[in-house]
Amino acid sequence: MTDPAPPPSLQGLHAIVTGGGTGIGAAITRRLAQLGLRVSILGRRAAPLEALCEQIPGTAAYTADIADPAAVETVFARAGDAFGPISVLVNNAGIALSSPVADTPLGDWQRQLDVNLTGAFLCIQAALPAMRAAGWGRVVNIASTAGLKGYPFVAGYCASKHGLIGLTRALALELAREGITVNAVCPGYTETDLVEDALRNISTESGRSREEALRRLTSLNPQRRLIRPEEVADAVAWLCGPTAAAVTGQAIAVAGGEVM
Ligand code: NAP
Question: What is the reported pTM?
Answer without folding.
Answer: 0.97
